[in-house]
Amino acid sequence: MHSKEGCELNKALLEVKNLKKYFKVPQGMLHAVDDVSFTIQQGRTLGIVGESGCGKTTTGRALLRLIAPTGGSILFDGKDIMKLSSAQMRRQRQDMQLIFQDPFSSLNPRKTIAQTIEEPIRLARLISNSDERFMRVLDLMDTVGLAERLINTYPHELDGGRRQRIGIARALAMNPKFIVCDEPVSALDVSIQAQILNLMKKIQRDKGITYIFITHDLSVVNHFSDDIAVMYLGRLIEKASADDLFRKPLHPYTQALLSAIPVPRIHNRPERILLRGELTSPINPEPVCRFVNRCNYATEQCRKTEPALIEVEPGHFVACYLVHAEHRAGEAAP
Amino acid sequence: MEEKRTAASGNLLEIENLVIQYVSNDEITHAVNGIDLQIPVGKTLGLVGETGAGKTTTALSILNLVPAPQGRILSGTVKVEGNDVLRMNEKQLQAFRGNSVAMIFQDPMTALNPIKTVGDQIAEGIAVHKNLNKAAAFEEAMSMLELVGIPSGRAREYPHQFSGGMKQRVVIAIALACNPLLLIADEPTTALDVTIQAQVLKLINELRVKYQMSMLMITHDLGIVAEVCDAVAIMYAGKIVEYGTLEDIFDHFSHPYTKGLFDSLPNIEDRRAELKPIKGLIPDPTNLPGGCSFHPRCNYCTPECTQGEPFVRQLSETHVVRCNLYRDAGRNAL
């Protein structure tokens, strides 16, 4: 859609198939991520949205094998990274980085900006000459908009926006192809949030980086992503381009979620679909639709078996019997 | 109860020239720097600003709860129904807090006592203010729970047995138990998911209308303001920089900072619209810039703005802006 480096367009950088992460808890098995599959093209951004406990953060970490997935396969640049040894995986992660949510707790308070950004370069033995390493740190600080005079300051001397810039510089230090951004702007004020989002977009344009952007903020994800995946209780329930998802959300949960966004305007306010109740437990879930207890349209079928994620329109996937039935009816019609 | 609702001026809350500082060993934090605010009976005022703007300090002053000794109220009056809260003695305050003015705090996870049942926590205020015995107060607490949509049978459960949204409902029940004249809601839904936020906002709105309460809604989210407020005060560095009705602020915003806030937000209708962040950072409240506090970040700054208090212009009966752009201009100069 946007003109990114032409030759690499449409090349899948990441292919995730049937990713699962279960946690053993006293009451049974907690299905944090349950059979999630998706593909991301190089240079694009996939937004993952959902509410607390839907498994979006666990998905991000499992992709980098920061927590060991229970099952599934992850192809990165054509390579199955589930098969890598931990030493190989460590090298692999030079290409796969993470930006954390909370810039207040994700930085070492005893390290200066320079030390923090330099650390991964040093550990990976990317640049052995310390002067060159220092130049690289300055270069990275410039990229993320940190003034050179801050080089010897500590995290506590800086505000949230600058701290998040350090987190970004650190993630960029390895020249990664792919970055998982886990709620990178949630802790920031709106005026600073906009600065950081613009910075991340610029970096993507300049370097062709692929992002996964995990957030609960729907207006931010709409602005930032090319494609959006909606998760509910460990399941991916809808995936489409950002345009399609916001123009025509198909899953009843997505519809309610989008309608709940508080829109900052006073005219033509959208009608709100209020959901009953709250998330059900992700522990030992029944093999039925996980949204069934809150859904206004649930039928017998939804209580019996679990709907699969099916492509109902080009590039638009949804896991809902209701939508599947409509889709089939639409195909049968002339 | 009826006579509780009437105030001579039509304003339930009147804050005048309020100045509050926090003094530590060698620093003075200028938290609130001379603000005036009114809330008419039965109306909701949104107090909007970013971290450190002084919103919560303003709210605490209405309950005379600014933490002493470091917090110092240097001047001003805070009148609820014509009575100056800042000049009440401890005994008067006890009768006043929770009864005339109640507060909902941001984080329901920490606002509740973990070792008391939710029923007991709601009953506590009822017993004190309505002079009821324990059993009668508990009875009333159970009906409060029903009112906020929690089955009364759960009154004997502890906070950890409730989800975040349910806890916030309990906090609302505590605040409303004594039928206050003014409800202060300090970011009441920031810690909640968006579908739960929609439920809680709807609940607050319904109860406010039902009990003809006035409300001070503190938030950084202009979407929430559009949804629940009648009037809006935009706060920056301890000052109200713009004040008006919803239409004044959303359709005719006039202060460069207010414009900056709107420009920083992603546009849900047009996801490709560029974010225009406010440049720079929020000033350090221990070292505020001279003149207009916003001038270092302002695109309209003139030499005049760096010295002396900015001009205050009454743009209409309801709309006030504090900005030198309006020294000569009577209408929107942006």
Describe the overall structure.
The complex is a heterodimer of chains A (334) and B (334). By secondary structure, chain A is an alpha/beta fold. Chain A contains 11 helices and 12 strands. Chain A has helices at 56-63, 86-92, 113-123, 130-143, 160-172, 190-207, 218-224, 242-247, 252-259, 300-304, 321-332, and strands spanning 12-25, 28-41, 45-49, 71-76, 79-80, 96-99, 178-182, 210-215, 227-232, 235-241, 310-313, 316-318. In chain A, the strands form 2 sheets. Chain A has an 8-stranded mixed β-sheet with strand order 6-7-8-3-9-10-12-11, sandwiched between helices. A 4-stranded antiparallel β-sheet of chain A has the order 2-1-4-5. The longest helix of chain A has 18 residues, at 190-207. Residues 1-8 of chain A have low confidence and may be disordered. By secondary structure, chain B is an alpha/beta fold. Chain B has helices at residues 55-62, 90-96, 108-111, 118-130, 134-147, 164-176, 194-210, 222-228, 246-252, 256-264; strands spanning 11-23, 28-40, 44-48, 71-80, 83-84, 101-104, 182-186, 214-219, 231-236, 239-245, 312-314, 320-322. Mean pLDDT of chain B is 91; it is low at 1-7. The A-B interface holds A 51-52, 159-162, 189-195, 197-198, 216, 218-220, 222-224, 242-243, 246, 256-257, 259-266, 269, 272, 274-275, 278-279 and B 50-51, 163-166, 193-199, 201-202, 220-227, 246-247, 250-251, 260-268, 271, 273-278, 281-282.
